[in-house]
Specification:
6-stranded mixed beta sheet, 19 helices, disordered N terminus, alpha+beta, 23 strands
């Protein structure tokens, strides 16, 4: 059937893909031509005034960044790449040189501790701009991105701020310099001529790549045309109503080489999916939040994998859950049942339409749960549930619910706060987190189910999972929302064995331990799902290597990291909208797209 319908999907792509997808950085040209220009740009890019090693920027979670341009023609491209690494506010400096004053610009940017100033040749004829740079450099971080003739470097002699200078005029140069500021690409060149007493032959600073780069497939030995099948599989998924839309991201060797959005938020075709749309990633929460925190407290020596639940939670010691170990929870071999009854147990006195001290826990709009409901009802149900399968692999949401309670006891910090402060913010992840409605407009959040039984509303910005909903959207098993780029950052850090952006988040041996196969009775790691050795299952795809680890999500999501091929693969969708369907799995959409990438690697250039 797929072959017979191929003509249809190809026709559908002509309008559907054109309107609703975009490459990661909208390059002016593709393929090897892009790589050739990028190589020329690299040879033409130099970093000056970096004795204090301010570039690449490191602590992005602490930075409030403003990008200022005057006459530079590729400012849109430059700013688009800056925003891959951190939230950056754009200011048009030309408004201040013509209508206002640069003093007003200093005032308007006073709440930003880092200024990135884009300069072209014409801007250097205005000494007020140089004065603006020097005035602000005394009190905050300033980075200059200069695009122009080397003969004009002398006009920057008085500037002490780091200068990334590129003599090449192209959109690719804008992309490259923006990435160099954050370490997405290295700076490898020194000045090749004398331009002033300060900027002389061989002066300059070399940097290393420390973050994701955004480029084209040819940069990693893959032909762009060999990834075109992804478009067709995505079109098939949407036409078959397996999901109204999706976002696909592929990174190889630390380089994002494919990132497209397909379809719409819902089947009414009103809001097209965008690259930075935020999805409910469902059970991907288990590894993207709960397991991340577990790895950290394990490294700190505050959590022993072979200690019991009762060691950390005295409330469990009168139950048969007390002797279950942390390792068993993470491997889904503790014997805990998959889940407990949730909304079926609710009584009229448990809920209210208004918030109050007695009903503080928000489930959805106009629906609040009474205080201590989790402890009085849900935790009691977990502790009273049967343990029948200890030592066997039985996937259980309750395992990660209990891990959340253990972690919050150890750290005295809510799960959502801990991961935000220790991982998402420091990594430069801009969308990832729990409770997205507190931070983002609804139009940026992908809706999930038109739920008709429990909450009886369209779930938009509220977690789909009912257990997590009764925990006010913050649970060890579900509740995380994120866009694809943020997840790529998090899992590139894992692929780097704990290192990203110049920071070591985990020891390499910790990453190796948690992502490795742990048990003789299942494929699982500690928290992480893995490649399945049973060939007939083709999990997660036909061609994934035995080193692959990651997780899927019930809402139609997945992340898979394959160290053998240097791959991070992310698929985000809302296959449960408007109601749950199994077509995404029955059509093997996620695995087939993943295999397109492996096939493209095998074909090479």
């Amino acid at each position: 059937m797929r072959k017979n319908n191929r003509w249809f999907y190809t026709l559908l792509l002509s309008g559907f893909i054109l309107l609703n997808s975009a490459c990661a950085q909208n390059p002016p040209f593709l393929g090897q031509a892009y790589v050739n220009e990028e190589q020329q740009v690299q040879k033409a890019t130099v970093l000056l005034n970096n004795a204090r090693q301010e570039i690449p920027l490191i602590d992005v979670g602490e930075l409030r960044i403003a990008s200022i341009h005057f006459t530079y023609q590729y400012t849109t491209a430059f700013d688009s790449l800056l925003n891959k690494y951190a939230a950056v506010q754009t200011f048009n400096g030309a408004d201040y040189t013509s209508v206002k004053t640069l003093g007003e610009l200093s005032f308007d940017t006073k709440n930003y501790n880092t200024l990135i100033v884009q300069l072209a040749d014409a801007d250097l004829d205005n000494p007020q701009i140089t004065g603006f740079i020097n005035d602000n450099k005394r009190i905050k971080n300033v980075v200059v991105a200069f695009f122009g003739d080397g003969g004009n470097l002398a006009k920057l002699n008085s500037v002490d701020a780091p200068i990334i200078w590129c003599s090449r005029a192209s959109q690719v140069a804008a992309f490259y310099s923006a990435q160099a500021i954050f370490g997405g690409v290295p700076v490898t060149q020194n000045i090749s001529a004398n331009y002033s007493p300060k900027y002389r032959t061989n002066s300059g600073y070399i940097t290393k790549k420390i973050r994701l780069q955004y480029t084209v497939p040819e940069e990693t030995g893959i032909k762009s045309d060999n990834l075109a099948e992804i478009d067709k599989v995505a079109a098939e998924a949407i036409h078959s109503q397996a999901t109204p839309g999706c976002v696909v991201l592929v990174a190889r060797d630390g380089k994002v080489i494919f990132n497209k959005a397909y379809g719409y938020h819902t089947y009414d075709n009103v809001l097209p999916d965008k690259l930075n749309d935020i999805f409910d990633v469902a059970s991907m929460t288990k590894i993207s939040a709960t397991t991340m925190e577990t790895m950290r407290v394990y490294e700190e020596g505050r959590l022993n994998l072979d200690s019991t639940i009762g060691t950390y939670m005295p409330i469990t010691r009168r139950s048969d859950k007390s002797t279950l170990t942390i390792r068993e929870l993470l491997e889904h071999q503790s014997g805990l049942i998959p889940d407990i009854k949730t909304y079926e147990k609710l009584k009229p006195t448990d809920v209210s339409t208004d918030s109050s001290a007695a009903y503080p826990n928000k489930v959805v709009d106009h629906y609040f749960l009474r205080k201590d409901y989790f402890k009085d009802v849900m935790l009691a149900d977990i502790l009273n549930s049967p343990v029948k399968t200890r030592g066997q692999y039985v996937y259980s949401d309750l395992s990660m619910v209990m891990m959340q309670q253990i972690l919050e006891t150890i750290t005295a910090t809510p799960l959502n706060t801990y991961v935000q402060q220790n991982f998402y913010n420091p990594l430069g992840m801009q969308s990832a987190g729990f409770l997205p409605l507190y931070r983002f407009p609804r139009t940026r959040i992908i809706p999930t189910e038109e739920e008709q039984v429990f909450r009886r509303t369209l779930l938009l910005g509220y977690v789909h999972d009912p257990t997590a909903a009764l925990l006010s959207g913050v649970s060890g098993n579900a509740g995380l929302f994120a866009d694809a780029n943020d997840l790529a950052i998090l899992y590139q850090m894992m692929l780097n064995r704990g290192s990203y952006g110049g920071v070591q988040y985990f020891k390499p041996e910790t990453v190796d331990l948690f992502t490795a196969k742990q048990s003789a009775v299942s494929r699982r790691g500690l928290g992480f799902d893995r490649w399945d050795p049973i060939a007939d299952r083709h999990y997660p795809s036909n061609l994934a290597s035995d080193q692959t680890y990651g997780h899927t999500g019930y809402t139609g999501t997945c992340v898979w990291v394959d160290p053998k091929y240097g791959l991070v693969y992310i698929f985000l969708s809302n296959r449960v909208n408007p109601k749950v369907t199994d077509k995404l799995s029955s059509l093997q959409i996620r695995g087939r797209i993943q295999d397109v990438v492996y096939q493209a690697i095998s074909k090479g250039l």
